[in-house]
C-alpha cells in the first residue's frame, strides 16, 4: 500500500503545534502527525503528516496559508517492507556493557553483556544513533565509578532504552517521560518485552511538568536525550529537580553546540564532568553543586 508524506516548516513551537492539530482535522485525515524542532539553532519547526491516500493539495495549501507556513511538500513513499529493511540494517550495537538488539538478533548478545531488546518496528532510539550510544556509555561509566542513584528520571525517553539501562545498573526508582504519547506507549511495550515493567513508570509529559514527576523528585540522576535548545530551556528545572551532588547526562547535542549547552548548565550550578563524542554528536555528564555549596571536582 503506498503512503504519502507532507511536510512544511514554520518558526516557533506553539505555531507548529497549532498547525499539527489542524492537520489532523483534514477531510483526508493523516494516519499520523509529527512536529520536530529543526536542529539549526533558529527555532524553526517541521510539521509532517503521513497519509494512506494522497492528501488533498487544496486543503494543505489552505492550512499552510492560514498558519503562515510555506506550502506543504508532498512525496509518495514507495511500497517497501520497512520492518524487514530495518532488521537488515540495524545490527546489534555495543555501548559499554550494553548491547542493543532486535528480537531477530537475540543470539548475538554475548553472555558477559547486558542485552536491551528494542524491536525493529520501534526503531527510534535503538542505540544506532550517536546520542543514544553516548548516553549508554556515560551511564555505564557512572556505575563503574561507584555512583549509585536511588531516584532516576529519563526525560524524553523515546523507546525507553536509557530507562531500561538504568534499571539494569541500579535498584533505583525510575520514571520515564516523553511529550509524545506514542513514544510513551512504545517505551511501555519495550519495558514489557524486557521484563522491566515493574521497575519503570512511563508518563506523558513535557519535561518535568507532571505531578508524579514532581512528587517523585528530586532525582539523583537525570538523563535527557533530546535537542540542544530544549535542553537549555530545561536547565532551571534541572537545577530544582536534581539532588545536590547528583548527575545529569545530556545528549541530542551537536559537537559545535556542546560548549553552549555546558555554559547554560554551569550558570545553573552544574559542573562539567565528562564529554563523550560519537561522530558528530556530544553527550555531556554534569554534576550538581554538592552540599554546602561546594562544587565537585572536574575529572
How would you characterize the overall build of this protein?
The chain has 299 residues and is α/β, with parallel strands linked by helices. The chain is 32% helix and 31% strand. The protein is built from 9 helices and 14 strands. Helix 4 runs parallel beside helix 5 and helix 8 runs parallel beside helix 9. The longest helix is centred in the middle third of the chain and has 15 residues. The C terminus is likely disordered.
Question: What is the 3D form?
Answer: globular
N-to-C SSE string, H for helix and E for strand: EHEEHEHEEEHEHEHEHEHEHEE
Widest sheet, order of strands: 10-9-8-11-12-14-13
Could you tell me the radius of gyration in angstroms?
Answer: 20 Å
How many strand units?
Answer: 14
Helix content: 25-40%
What is the count of DSSP helices, taking H or I runs of 4+ residues? Answer: 9
| Sheet having the most strands | 7 strands, mixed
Which ranges are low-confidence, i.e. pLDDT below 50, for 5 or more consecutive residues? 292-299
Task: Summarize model confidence as the mean pLDDT.
Answer: 84
Calculate the terminal CA-CA distance, rounded to whole Å.
Answer: 54 Å
Strand content: 25-35%
Q: Structural class, from helix and strand content?
A: alpha/beta
In short:
With 299 residues, the protein is α/β, with parallel strands linked by helices. It is built from nine helices and 14 strands.
Key words describing this protein structure:
299 residues; 4-stranded antiparallel beta sheet; alpha/beta
Amino acid at each position: 500500500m503506498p503512503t504519502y508524506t507532507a511536510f512544511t516548516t514554520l518558526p516557533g513551537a506553539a505555531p507548529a503545534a497549532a498547525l499539527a492539530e489542524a492537520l489532523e482535522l483534514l477531510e483526508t485525515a493523516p494516519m499520523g502527525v509529527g512536529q520536530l524542532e529543526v536542529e539549526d539553532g533558529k527555532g524553526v519547526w517541521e510539521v509532517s503528516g503521513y497519509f494512506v491516500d494522497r492528501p488533498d493539495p487544496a486543503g494543505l495549501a489552505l492550512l499552510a496559508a492560514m498558519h503562515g507556513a510555506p506550502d506543504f511538500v508532498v512525496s509518495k513513499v514507495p511500497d517497501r517492507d520497512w520492518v524487514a529493511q530495518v532488521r537488515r540494517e540495524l545490527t546489534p550495537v555495543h555501548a559499554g556493557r550494553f548491547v542493543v538488539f532486535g528480537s531477530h538478533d537475540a543470539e548475538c548478545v554475548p553472555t558477559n553483556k547486558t542485552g536491551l531488546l528494542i524491536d525493529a518496528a520501534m526503531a527510534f532510539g535503538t542505540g544506532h544513533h550517536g546520542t543514544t550510544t553516548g548516553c549508554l556509555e556515560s551511564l555505564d561509566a557512572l556505575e563503574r565509578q561507584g555512583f549509585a542513584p536511588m531516584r532516576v528520571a529519563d526525560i524524553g525517553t523515546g523507546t525507553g532504552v536509557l530507562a531500561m539501562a538504568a534499571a539494569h545498573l541500579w535498584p533505583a526508582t525510575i520514571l520515564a517521560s516523553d511529550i509524545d504519547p506514542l513514544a510513551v506507549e512504545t517505551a511501555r511495550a519495550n519495558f514489557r518485552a524486557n521484563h522491566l515493567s515493574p521497575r519503570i513508570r512511563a508518563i506523558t509529559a513535557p519535561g518535568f511538568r507532571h505531578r508524579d514527576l514532581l512528587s517523585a523528585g528530586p532525582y539523583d540522576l537525570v538523563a535527557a536525550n533530546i535537542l540542544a535548545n530544549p535542553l537549555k530551556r530545561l536547565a532551571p528545572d534541572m537545577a530544582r529537580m536534581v539532588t545536590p551532588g547528583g548527575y545529569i547526562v545530556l545528549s541530542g547535542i551537536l559537537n559545535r553546540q556542546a560548549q553552549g549547552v555546558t555554559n547554560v548548565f554551569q550558570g545553573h550550578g552544574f559542573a562539567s564532568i565528562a564529554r563523550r563524542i560519537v561522530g558528530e554528536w556530544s553527550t555531556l555528564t554534569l554534576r550538581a553543586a554538592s552540599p554546602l555549596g561546594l562544587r565537585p571536582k572536574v575529572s
